[in-house]
Structures are given as structure tokens and as C-alpha cells.
Design goal:
The complex is a heterodimer. Chain A is an alpha/beta fold. Chain A is built from 20 helices and 22 strands. In chain A, the strands form 4 sheets. Chain A has an 8-stranded mixed sheet, sandwiched between helices. A 6-stranded mixed sheet of chain A has the order 6-7-8-3-9-10, sandwiched between helices. In chain A, α3 packs parallel to α6 and α10 packs across α17. Chain B is globular, with a radius of gyration of 23 Å. By secondary structure, chain B is mostly helical. The termini of chain B are close together. Chain B is built from 13 helices and no strands. The longest helix of chain B is centred in the middle third of the chain and has 36 residues. The chains are: A alpha/beta, B mainly alpha.
Chain lengths: 589, 306
């Protein structure tokens, strides 16, 4: 905790940034529309201020306004001031602003995968940032760049300088971004959702790093985030924003202990927390889907004749079954093979082993039989905008599965679509609208309605709520559970979010590098996690409670091993041991 | 890398076989009679027949094609019907002129096209943007001979800055190269504009700006190498279009290249020359594409050749 935050207020650190009545507007044909209105705050040395809010709250626009990076000419600052020390940044000509940018105020962004230039080496991008603001020679800049990479604890920094961004993992790239931002020891660092795109274990490492560097350099941090867990872990103070306005500002402890405004209360209530899962009704034991020893490998070709020389071992010997009306969760970090399993189940990824849906397997059926079997399983994807054809009306989209399977007349299909619209909480008069006219949460409801159209036995929800704001996420999860009770649908819930999984699942399987390392009921896996990887995943989740003291995670020795093996070789097959009541844990080597 | 090049060259051999088959077939079914062209209008039927037998043109199609192929494999492109010399010699004597013009023209195309595209993208939706895109539209749609004649009239006849035609000095090269450059620049400027607009919107450009780099550095150091990638692939494809354009432009400017050779041969149905020029063009296109694919990994390290 920084000096500014002491409850007595005795030792206040100096102010570095002061924002007064900041208003940012976008020019529209109907006149200026404010995106951020009358926002004021101050930031002291060594302090972390979180600006929290859902999409459209204006939190990212605020950060771009401070950096002077608003997209011209439509979006601009129309009132207020941003003072860095004695300088009003809003009045600074671009040339002078440029000399501050990156030197006195720096920024890191959400997407480490796309935030670094793919055609320039890490070294070139780092030294360029240093040389833009100092007289350092090439060799001196390189030395500083190396020191910066050391500071962000990147392994083998010498080699990293010569590497290109695509040769690094997401977590490593975000470290490079942080190194770049902090190389010149700026007074203010704006971190815009710095860990949102990262896996949870990587997130905790990056947050640790930011905290350590802040302590070392005394940087003031503005942390833009939607994740109240991250807020609780990182921030001294919080501003909650909604629709461009500050709703509430208080110390982190106060906000979490006694939020004053209804919006803040709702926001905090919607945050999924571990251990808040309601007890779930007993489910029947009838099996809807059964996977036995499923293996998915993708060939990598090479040589003059284009023969397979290596394989990506995406899924290795995975077996589980899903029962009618239950929620079976598959958790793991990116690249662990969980989405590949989803594809294999619906028959769009070639696999070995056996997958049965309602006792039938795609492999045993002719084309007509396969088509009929497809009705039993539907998928809801992560990004609803990408999953809905922008040129089709919502009514057509929802009725399309019926059309494809030739169920009912056109009038009946339309009636069914409007029925489904109502069931997922939308209105019938929206049937003839297009996807872009809906919000993210509404679009996901449309995808759910479409999945329901064929009355499937199993719906695969592949990160279906991950892209949604927490309040929307909570409502969509409620809807899914209500639908499950009503229709007895089984869910295969694929997610990286341990808190959400803990809240809604009946049984859980934890995946790592294509294999299941632990599986059992929710109570078994979360109440008594046995495999070190499961424990690591659970411990890494940021807890939305500032008084929570995180158990220090052991740092991983290196990166996740590669799933690529030359032909004829592969990962060792894990042996599962039952430690009681069907709680299976992979044995340690 | 060597295995990649080897595989591509093997594929190229198949492409060339296909190209020669199709061209040979089209010339075979052509209603015009090459023998009549050789013999002249007043020759008797007996003379025509004897020439036909001499050239083997009375044989069935596959026999003729087979004979041509077996010659080709030995490096023999055949003999011109009318010019009484080896096709390979004719092409070899004219190829340097065409290659010189090609390199100069592609240079002009890129300079004009890329500059227009970059400026239009950076001043998107402004008057400058609209004017540049209008210009590129005109150059794309204008017939080649019209632009060629116009350039010749203005810069050679009226202003007298450049010679009216011919070959030999740098001044001879300017007009045909610039003409081809203008004609080809329209595609490049439009493609560069959209590519540049996409790149300027990316996160890494925002990162570059957030580092406090100058605008020139952001555009030239960060955006350009990314935006130019699709253009490089296009240069390879463009050589095909270019070979078509060169026939007209070389004829108008009296440039002694293979375009002019082809033009004369087509008029007189000199089949061995038409075949030879077509094959040389096909080789140029294949090599151009291979070259473009080989250059790409140097600009974008993510591209792996396998």
C-alpha cells in the first residue's frame, strides 16, 4: 500500500497527475455527444488508481485522452484539463506531447498478441522507444533495453532482443510491453486491461510484476479494468464509471466493504466468486454423451513431398461422460485442447477413439444419420458477433437450424423463432432486426435461442460468457440455468474462468496440455483439489476482496511445454487414480 | 529453403507444360492458315501442300505437339516460319530490352502507386484522397494504346523532351517505362490505400504512437513494412498483366523487345515465335511469383516457407 493511502493521511506523496472536469466528446451528425463527462481525479506518486467499469463506460477513452491518442478528428477533449506536474496536456501542441508520451506517461494495452509490431524484433521496438526520448547511442539503448527485460524477469533477455513477437507467448509479450513502457521510468503508467487477454496463472504473474516494479520505481499507475478481482488485488483507490461518468470514488477497502451507490453494489454483486455456487439438484444418471479415449492430432507437413513430419497433440486420451440435465465443465488455459474437444464432439475435428451422443457415433452413421445426430448437439461460441451472419435478420438466424433440418413449414419456423426469442428474454418485434442492432449480451441470447431451436440434448458453451460484462454475464448464466431446468439440457461448459465454473457446474474436468489431470464433482475438485495444476489454477484467480491475502504462488520454472512432437513420439500418457467417489487425479511422475 | 525452391520449380514445370499445351492447341484450332501466310496469296495448291508437309503441319495434333515438346526438352524452341532464324536466337536478342523495360516499369509502378496509396490512406476521405483515387480509377480504365499515344504526343512530339521511339539510351527508356508505370499504378495505389488504412488501425500502431515516435517514424518504420506485404504478392501476379501490356506499349514506342516480336508474329501466325514468347512470359510469371514468395519472409518473419 502506498504512502498516499494511509488512513491518517499523514504522509501524502506528491501529486503527479491531476484530471479536472475532463469531458471527451464524439462529433456526430446530431452534434457533439459526450463519451466521458466531467471526470476529475488526482494521482499520487507510487499510487494505483483503478478505473473500473463495464464496456461503454468511457474508461478506455479516458486513458487515450490522457495520452493524447484519441482518434482524430471525430473524438476530442471538449472541456477540462489533464495536468502532469505543471503542464496542461490538453493544451500542449502535438510535438511537445510526443516528447512526453512514452517518456513521462506510458501505456500498456489489453492485447499483447497484437500490440507489438510483428515485423520488428523485440530489441528494435525496445531501443526505438528509448532512443526516441534520449540521446542514447545504439549500444547504450541496447544496454538499457536489456536491463528493462531483466527488470520484467523475462528469461534469456539476450536472445529475446533478437526474437520477433510471434516467437513469444502472450505473457512474455506483455512483459515486453511493460519493459517498453517502464524503460524510461515514466511518472505515470496507464495499464488498460493489462491482463484481460492472459491466462489466469499468467495474469497473476504479470500483476505481481507490476506491483514489484511500482514499488521499485515509484510509478503511479492508472489501472483500467472491468475485473473487480484485479481491482481488489492491485488498487489503492477506485473510480467506478458508468456511461461516461464517475459513479463512485473511494478507497478500495471502502468500495468493497460498503459500496454507496446502487450501481456499484450491483456491479459487485454480479462478480462471480469462488465458493458462492448454489447447491445443485441431483441429476439423473442417463448418459447424453460419452467420450472414450479420444485423441485429436493435427499433422504438420514438410519436405519436398509434403509428408507429415510432426504432430500437434491437441487432445490425448480423453474420456468422460455427460449426463442428462447436468453441467459438465472443462477448464484449462489457452491451448490445452478444450475447444478441440468441442469440435470433435460435433464431428468437425478428425479424431481417434469413440464419441457417442445418445448412444450413437458419427463414425457408424451414413450422411442422413449424421445429419439427424447433429440435431442432438448444438454449440454457443465465445464471440456472438462473429457467430451471427450480419446480413441475416435475427428471425432468420434463429429459424435457420429448423430450415436446414426441414422441420415445419416456414410459418411454423417463424412462430418457433418468436417463441424462442421470448424465452431468452427478447421481444418478438425484434425478429426482423439485424445482429448489429443488439448489444453483446442480447446477441449471446440470440445464439442461445438458435442453439435451442432444435431442442438438443447437449449444448456446448465454448467460453460463451467470457466476452460479456459481469452484470450481463450473470444474467446470461441465470438464463442458461433456467433453460437447463426447463428442458433438461446437458451443458458442456468450456471455460478458463474458475469462479464461473465453480458457480454453475455439477462436475468438472481440468485439462492441461491435451490431457485431463483431475476430474470429479464440483465439491471434489474445488473443495479438495489434488493435482498441483488444479491448485495453481484456483489460487491464481484474483479474489474480489481486498482483505484476501493471496498465498504466494511458486513461479513456474518455464513456459508451458510444446504439444508438438515428431512423428512416432508423444507425451507420456497420464494414469488416473481414483481417490474416492469417482474423484480422479493424474498420478505424478 | 532449398527443398522449398526445388518443390516450387517442379510445380513450375507442370505449369509450363500446361501453358504450352493450351497455347499449342489454340493455335492448332485457329481458322487462319499459317502455310498460306508463308506461301503467299498467289502460290499454287501444290506448293502450299508441300510447305505444309515440310513443316509437318499435316500431322495430327498430338504428333505435332509431341514433336514440339521433344524439341523443347532439348532446348530447341523451333525455327521461325518467316524470319528464317532460330526462335531462341530471336528471343535472346530481344529479351534484354524487355527485361530492362520491365524492371524500370515496375519501379515506376511502385513509386507512383505506393506513394499515391500512402498519401490517400493518411488523408483518408479528404479532397486529396478522392482526387488520387479518381486518378487511379482513370489509369486503371484507360486503354493502353490511348495512354501510350497521349504520352508520346505530349512529351515527345509537342515538348520534345524525349525521343519519339527507339532504344539505346536512358532517355529512350523514360517514356515507355513511365507509361507502363502509370497504367499499372492504379491497382497498386488502391491496394496500398486499403492495406495502409487497415494497418494504421492496428494495436501496434497505437503502441508505436504511445511510445512518442514521430509520425514519419510511425508511418515509415512501423506501418509501411506491414502494409507492403500484400503488395509484394501482387507484384508476382502482376507480371502476367504486365506481359500483356508490353505488347502494346513496345509496339507504340518502337521498343525492340519480345512484345514487339510477339505482335509481329501474331499478325503473321508465326507459330514457333508465338509459342516461344508465350513460354518465356510464362517462365517470367512463374519466376516472378517465386521471387515474391521468397522475398516475403524477409519482410514478415512470421512467414515460413515449407
Amino acid at each position: 500500500m502506498s504512502a498516499a493511502q494511509t488512513d491518517t493521511g499523514a504522509t501524502l506523496a506528491p501529486e503527479v497527475l491531476s484530471v479536472q472536469d475532463l469531458t471527451v466528446s464524439v462529433r456526430t451528425p446530431a452534434g457533439d455527444r459526450p463519451l466521458v463527462e466531467n471526470l476529475s481525479f488526482t494521482l499520487r506518486r507510487g499510487e494505483t488508481l483503478a478505473i473500473a467499469g463495464e464496456s461503454g463506460s468511457g474508461k478506455s477513452i479516458t486513458s487515450l485522452a490522457i495520452m493524447g491518442l484519441l482518434p482524430p478528428p471525430a473524438v476530442r477533449i471538449t472541456a477540462g484539463s489533464v495536468r502532469l506536474g505543471d503542464t496542461d496536456l490538453t493544451k500542449l501542441p502535438e510535438a511537445q506531447m510526443r516528447s512526453l508520451r512514452g517518456a513521462r506517461i506510458a501505456m500498456i494495452f489489453q492485447e499483447p498478441m497484437t500490440s507489438l509490431n510483428p515485423v520488428l524484433t523485440v530489441g528494435a521496438q525496445l531501443t526505438e522507444a528509448i532512443r526516441a526520448h534520449t540521446d542514447a547511442s545504439r549500444a547504450e539503448a541496447r544496454k538499457q533495453a536489456l536491463a528493462a527485460l531483466h527488470a520484467v524477469r523475462l528469461s534469456q533477455p539476450e536472445q529475446r532482443l533478437k526474437q520477433y513477437p510471434h516467437e513469444l507467448s502472450g505473457g512474455m509479450r506483455q512483459r515486453v510491453m511493460i519493459a517498453m513502457a517502464l524503460a524510461l521510468r515514466p511518472e505515470v503508467l496507464i495499464a488498460d486491461e493489462p491482463t484481460t487477454a492472459l491466462d489466469v496463472t499468467v495474469q497473476s504473474e504479470v500483476l505481481d510484476l507490476l506491483r514489484d516494479l511500482q514499488r521499485e520505481f515509484g510509478t503511479a499507475i492508472i489501472l483500467i479494468t472491468h475485473d473487480m478481482g484485479v481491482v481488489a488485488e492491485m488498487a489503492d483507490r477506485v473510480i467506478v464509471m458508468k456511461a461516461g461518468k464517475a459513479v463512485e470514488e473511494a478507497s478500495t477497502r471502502q468500495i468493497f466493504a460498503s459500496p454507496q451507490m446502487p450501481y456499484t453494489q450491483d456491479l459487485l454483486a454480479a462478480v462471480p466468486r469462488m465458493g458462492k455456487g448454489k447447491p445443485r439438484p441431483e441429476t439423473p444418471t442417463e448418459t447424453v454423451a460419452r467420450l472414450s479415449d479420444v485423441v485429436v492430432r493435427f499433422p504438420l507437413k514438410g519436405g519436398i513431398l509434403g509428408r507429415t513430419i510432426a504432430q500437434v497433440h491437441a487432445v490425448e486420451h480423453v474420456s468422460f461422460d455427460i449426463r442428462r440435465g447436468e453441467t459438465f465443465a472443462l477448464v484449462g488455459e489457452s491451448g490445452c485442447g478444450k475447444s478441440t474437444i468441442a469440435k470433435a464432439i460435433v464431428g468437425i475435428a478428425p479424431h481417434q477413439g469413440r464419441i457417442e451422443i445418445a448412444g450413437q457415433s458419427f463414425a457408424d452413421l451414413d450422411a442422413a444419420g449424421q445429419k439427424a445426430l447433429r440435431r442432438r448437439v448444438q454449440i454457443v461460441f465465445q464471440d456472438p458477433m462473429a457467430a451471427l451472419d450480419p446480413r441475416m435478420t435475427v428471425g432468420t438466424l434463429i429459424a435457420e437450424p429448423l430450415l436446414i433440418h426441414g422441420i415445419g413449414s416456414l410459418a411454423e419456423q417463424r412462430a418457433r423463432a418468436s417463441e424462442l426469442m421470448q424465452r431468452v428474454g427478447l421481444t418478438t418485434d425484434q425478429l426482423d432486426r439485424y445482429p448489429h442492432e443488439f448489444s453483446g449480451g442480447q446477441r449471446q441470447r440470440i445464439c442461445i435461442a438458435r442453439a435451442l431451436a432444435l431442442q438438443p440434448d447437449l449444448i456446448i458453451a465454448d467460453e460463451s460468457v467470457s466476452a460479456l460484462d459481469v452484470s450481463v454475464q450473470a444474467r446470461v448464466l441465470d438464463l442458461l440455468q433456467a433453460l437447463q431446468r426447463e428442458f433438461g439440457i446437458a451443458f458442456l461448459f468450456i471455460s478458463h474462468d474458475m469462479a464461473v465454473v465453480e458457480n454453475i457446474s455439477d462436475r468438472v474436468a481440468v485439462m492441461y496440455l491435451g490431457q485431463i489431470v483431475e476430474t470429479g464433482t464440483r465439491a471434489q475438485v474445488f473443495g479438495n483439489p489434488q493435482h498441483p495444476y488444479t491448485r495453481r489454477l484456483i489460487d491464481a484467480v484474483p479474489v474480489p476482496d481486498p482483505s484476501h491475502i493471496r498465498t504466494a504462488l511458486p513461479r513456474l520454472a518455464g513456459e508451458v511445454p510444446s504439444p508438438v512432437h515428431v512423428l512416432g513420439q508423444g507425451p507420456a500418457r497420464l494414469v488416473m487414480r481414483d481417490i474416492g467417489d469417482g474423484h480422479l487425479v493424474a498420478q505424478q511422475a | 529453403m532449398p527443398t522449398y525452391i526445388l518443390r516450387r520449380l517442379l510445380q513450375s514445370a507442370l505449369i509450363l507444360l500446361g501453358v504450352s499445351f493450351i497455347t499449342f492447341f489454340l493455335l492448332f484450332v485457329l481458322p487462319a492458315d499459317p502455310v498460306r501466310q508463308i506461301a503467299g496469296r498467289s502460290a499454287s495448291a501444290a506448293v502450299v501442300e508441300s510447305i505444309r508437309q515440310q513443316l509437318g503441319l499435316d500431322q495430327p495434333f498430338l504428333v505435332q505437339f509431341g514433336r514440339y515438346l521433344s524439341g523443347l526438352v532439348q532446348g530447341d524452341l523451333g525455327r521461325s516460319y518467316l524470319q528464317k532464324s532460330e526462335v531462341s536466337e530471336l528471343i535472346a536478342s530481344r529479351l534484354p530490352a524487355t527485361l530492362l523495360l520491365m524492371v524500370a516499369a515496375i519501379f515506376c509502378e511502385l513509386v507512383i502507386g505506393l506513394a499515391m496509396g500512402i498519401i490517400a490512406a493518411l488523408r483518408r476521405d479528404s479532397f486529396t484522397d478522392q482526387a488520387l483515387m479518381m486518378t487511379s480509377f482513370v489509369t486503371v480504365s484507360a486503354p493502353q494504346f490511348v495512354v501510350s499515344l497521349l504520352m508520346l504526343y505530349v512529351f515527345a512530339v509537342k515538348l520534345g523532351w524525349f525521343p519519339i521511339g527507339g532504344y539505346g539510351t536512358f532517355r529512350h527508356l523514360v517514356l515507355p517505362a513511365v507509361t507502363l508505370g502509370i497504367l499499372g499504378s492504379g491497382w497498386y495505389s488502391r491496394m496500398m490505400r486499403s492495406s495502409m488504412i487497415d494497418v494504421m488501425r492496428t494495436d501496434y500502431i497505437r503502441t508505436a504512437r504511445s511510445k512518442g515516435l514521430t509520425r514519419a517514424r510511425v508511418v515509415l518504420g512501423h506501418a509501411l513494412p506491414n502494409a507492403i506485404l500484400p503488395i509484394i504478392a501482387m507484384i508476382g501476379i502482376d507480371i502476367g498483366v504486365f506481359m500483356g501490356g508490353i505488347v502494346v506499349v513496345e509496339s507504340v514506342f518502337g521498343w525492340p523487345g519480345i512484345g514487339q516480336l510477339a505482335w509481329q508474329a501474331i499478325q503473321r501466325i508465326d507459330i514457333p515465335i508465338i509459342m516461344g514468347v508465350t513460354l518465356v512470359s510464362a517462365v517470367a510469371i512463374v519466376l516472378g511469383n517465386l521471387l515474391a514468395d521468397l522475398i516475403a519472409p524477409f519482410i514478415d518473419p512470421r512467414i515460413k516457407l515449407k
